[in-house]
UniProtKB/TrEMBL annotation, chain B:
Signal peptide: none
Highest taxon, organism lineage: Bacteria
Domain spans labelled YdbS-like PH: 70-146, 421-486
Name of the molecule in the record: YdbS-like PH domain-containing protein
Amino acid sequence: MAIAWQAPERRYRTYLQVRSLLTMLFFAVLIGIGYATGIYPQEVVPIWVAAVIWLAFTLFFSLFFAARRFQFTAWARSNEGMHLKRGALFRKIRAVPLNRIQHVEFKQSALERLFKIARLAMYTAGSGGADLTIPGLEPELAMQLKAELLTTIVSEPDEADATTHG
Amino acid sequence: MAELNWQRTPLITIAFFLLKQLKQLVSNFSNLVPVFAAIFVGGKNSIWIPIALVSVYVLWVIVSAILNQRFFLYAIDDDAVHVRSGVFNRQHLTLKYERIQQAEVHEAWYFRPFKLTILSVDSAGAAGKEVQIPGLTMALATELRQRMLAQTIKPATEQASSSSEPEVDLQKSFPTSEIIRAGIIDNKLFVLLAVLAYPLSQLDLLEDYVVPWVEANLGWLNTEQAWLLTAAAVVGVLALLFVAAIVVSLLTYHDLTLTLHGDRFQARSGALSIRTLSFRYPKLQAVFVRRNLRARLLKRASVRVSQLRPVTAQAGGQAGGQQFHLPVVDDSFLHEFRGRLRLPEAGQVHWQRLSNLALLGPSLWLAVLFPIVAAILYFAAETGVWGLLGSVALWLIIQTLVVLSWRNYGYSFVTSSTTPREQWFVVKRGIFSRNENWYPRHKVQQIDVVQGPWLRLLGFSHLLLYTAAGAESIRYLPTEQAQQLQLDWVSEIGQQHRRWM
């Protein structure tokens, strides 16, 4: 059986790019403060070298890496499980059987709200953090998925009925 | 809901709260070291500061133990147990019987003269709570535990038959000779030696302290005899520690008795504090069969059964302490016990090896690393031929260990022929030891296929299986096979509607 993979919203790509841009801006500010206060070791690494390196990193992460990451992110819901594919360099395909999901969480950060996308996090028993987080979902779709999953979990055949008493 | 009948624990339970405080102090000791250091440095001239602090602390421990006992209240309801505790931060905890994972009766040594016990209760879930109610009478504690566990098994109608003393299917007592073997197998001395080996080797203890002392005090001996004496003393101390470790095992596992009724397994042991460890078959998450070098020489094995436990309890140092554990089983009983756990016969398992590729990575690293080490030793440290020979020998040893661990690794998917049939996923590993980890296949919670850039070039992937009792990986599977296995299992597990925690 092949899995019907679904790509996240296209806005997710812009979101990833903006996020990496913000991270790079943070570094730029750090370097800038260092330069302004004179902590920056100008004799060791001239400021223009740092600027060129920064630019290269920014272009690489914001244009190439984020796009590639978006390209390989996909999720799928089969009858029995949730699947998620991600990673640009280190690929990871994760699968969680639906009847092992303990609870579901709808998540949306401020930046994600700006891009009108949301995440859906699924948890299994006994583990610390979220086990499967689907990024870049249309908020309405995420809510709908969440409701669907919850009804699936609730309507699982009762354990006691299925257990063979012996 | 009926009015709750709040009860206070007997006065003697102050001892329980005192010990709890002391345990906390021991586990937090490393955090307090800077404080001690500060006191030590700051209070150099005034000896009374540390003394005052210690006495204030002792006073505080005693007072807070008494207060804790005064403020600890519990109530037993028809469907739940309520606990109220805390002096300043009041806590009110309600534990429904149906949510209780585990309930154990612990007869601590300081309660035994008073015929009192401690009941510890675990609930399910990631942020699980553990509650201990001290100072219950044996009869009340056992009855409560029966009630709690009976609730979790089946609906009320079927309770009558199971909550009254069920008949015993199998009972096995372990004689003292076996317990001594357990002491040898699980000897803490070896752990201690491994931990101490490094600092001792750095200290030059023998050179700096022992030899001068012997020379100064035992001048009538010549040096040769002094060496003999030190060697004898070291061997003597080691032998003493070895025996002491066996005595500890004898105390903890004294009178170890295993009882089985239905799907309930219980092990009871102890000379001073009697503890009972138990689990119910449906809650089993993993079976670990351990056989280290000593165990192989003695032809014994140890078995651990793990079930879902609160994360907090796992993180605490006593993770292994509460697990169901048989420290020593011989081959014939292991065979029977495996049957009871619905594990397949040893002959049914078709072990599969990892691909040869699994050897490539570590071997490559070693092949790069050791010439560098040899070159440094030869040119920079100027150790000459010995440095070269030494590094070659070390390389050979480590490479052999890598090959051995690859050779002894195996995994398999087996269905047992017991009734009811059970499907398992098993991994064996070990260089000198033989360890097998068994996981019920339908309890796998999450399956990953991961692939780094190098593996992608080769067309291979790692398969990672997560269960509530830990994760296992099958490395270097062809990518297609890994993805197919992932799909097959998810649909297989997704269609299983059996109880799993």
